[in-house]
């Protein structure tokens, strides 16, 4: 037989990262070959369902792996693996992975079990101390933690560190491999699978020379002192003896590959032994096959992963040196500089980017390079007591007075006042009753009540209204927007309860006073009072901004309202958990806005409020608003909860999740509408259907039914106006 050329490879060996642990590895490969944890190599041609390895040494079975080959008498490759891992049932087959009976997408992680593709292998790693690898062809490999020593059973043996004993002995009688393997059979409830018939050893021509040549060749020179070669010689000779292919060397590939794998587990670094004429392997895209590569691949998402990897090398397809795997654009191997970036689920090519109100970001080598830009600050009063300052400091004020929310520290150009009042059955339940915007030192005062009524200098006024460089209008039935020319905008929510969002332009940074803080990008001094003292508690700070001395002082309260009622707590946890559900309607915003604070507020308010559903829906809507401010528009979040506002829109109006323009009105068709030039964060609520316009009576009508307007006066449809000889 002519010698076979081996793959060209540099013949240098370095120290392996992972210490030898071949004694913790069980495997099966090729033509029904098995290796136990204790090093016995045997052949068992069983086609039934067998226990590959199970935890048998204690009352509680932490793992159980079962293997089936076939179907068909000529099929030697595994076809199905069933794994029970501490209560989780994983079923592996070619092309499918089921967990507890349901198909999953990889990578998958649950209950301490990670399932992923790794260099052509299907890998299952469990925190209980188990790693399982299947190359989706002939090779299965199981590695166990040493804590399971002498506690296993199955085809992998008892893991007691002693070959032969006690796997191949039963009542002091030596078992053949076929007898031992048949004892591990695990038939289904209606299955009666036949045990394999012992094979005649037979004779064949002596072609063992090629096996010895292969296993002692230069690529395996560092393996001979680590792995017992004789057992693999026997397996190789068997494969060669039963080979029916023209190219005999192709029958040796599985055993040579297994020898290489065991060498790596024993602490060796096998070299590339494959070649164009010897067990060639192909790789997708521009990847290259290596016999001993890092198991932790560098990717665009994690370009330095291999530097932190301590596992032994594995065989598989790898990127050429200097390149990483593009796990974002799925373009194979690329230089790091060619990696794309991801933001909010969208992929950005190198050199492109995105902008928000506060940052400009550019994708560079798979990483975002961001520059801060001047951006507005937002202060909010949520649920009648939860305050978030311009610098995003969170605190709670169960007040019973009127308070200064925000004003310039050194002028009276504007002042925003919030009236908080006790409104429920408990002292801790407070509501935002009204909001006041004072301009020009009190020359013009706008007041918006929780009922939606608007007063200008104490006179009831219909919206929209413009006065003293301020404009108030309703983009939907749920919100009122107050826009000033002083860098101040108020977004006032009315449904289901009153909440307010105060937005200040960047030019006001460091110049604000009130409950909303000083807007200097430093949370530590947000409790600074007008005298310059930084108060230590929210209550003491809030009391310095009362506008009426006779009001009672706020007291610090640490009571958890959910602890007072088990039923309220269950209700709150059930519905508020929608905010944090990774598969729920709010999940797409989790990367942009952390829901934890909103979840805490939701629990508190839902348990504390007399009208639990209203407070629940207000808490959910406040998270929706925060997401919209970051450019993430959520829809369908009211499905199954908070549906009442959708069904109670005034006649002729319809509900919409995201409204970002001025309301379509008949008046705007004739005269320029100043509110349409005002930009605001999208809101939800009731508005006119497409193609209709809101008339002065608050009814949505088609364009043909709209009146005309001349100098602010409405002229009914079909009528004409005579003025100075002209007919309108």
Automatic annotation (TrEMBL):
GO terms for cellular component: extracellular matrix; extracellular space. It comes from the Eukaryota. Its main location: secreted. It is found in: Secreted. Residues 24-194, 377-552 form the VWFD domain. InterPro entries: Mucin_vWF_Thrombospondin_sf, Ser_inhib-like_sf, TIL_dom, VWF/SSPO/ZAN-like_Cys-rich_dom, VWF_dom, VWF_type-D. The keyword Phosphoprotein does not apply. The keyword NADP does not apply. Keywords: Disulfide bond, Glycoprotein, Repeat, Secreted, Signal. This is VWFD domain-containing protein. It comes from Ovis aries. The lineage of its organism: Eukaryota, Metazoa, Chordata, Craniata, Vertebrata.
